[in-house]
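Dear colleague,

Thank you for sharing your sequence with our group. We've completed the structure prediction you requested, and as agreed, I am returning the results in plain text so they can be pasted directly into your records. Please verify that the sequence below matches your submission; if there's any discrepancy, let me know and we will rerun it promptly.
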Amino acid sequence: MVSLCIVLVAISFVVFALSGHSLVGLVIGVIVLDIGVQAAQISNQSRIYALKPEARSRVNTVYMVVYFICGAAGSAVASLAWHAFGWVGVCFAGLAATGLAGLSHSRSPLKKA
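Please find the predicted structure tokens below.
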């Protein structure tokens, strides 16, 4: 499931790059991005809860702290990409981050899908 989510997120950044001046394209990209990210979030939380069921609260805290730190780092990278390369740079940065997520997922000992 997470593999499919990563593909959806990658597709959304391609849509963004190709339709940066089209409201319809941006809406489609946002919908695809949201589906991919939300489905991955649910799948990942299910996986981490299974690691240590008696410590769900602590495991979720660590997961969410890392999730938000990475989100903030992504925002910072996107800001730098915007200033250096504009919209295409932001889309490339998002696609590169998605590639890193795919690489990390492919090497994960927890990988199920």
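Summary note from our side: Residues 2-106 form one domain.

Kind regards,
the structure core
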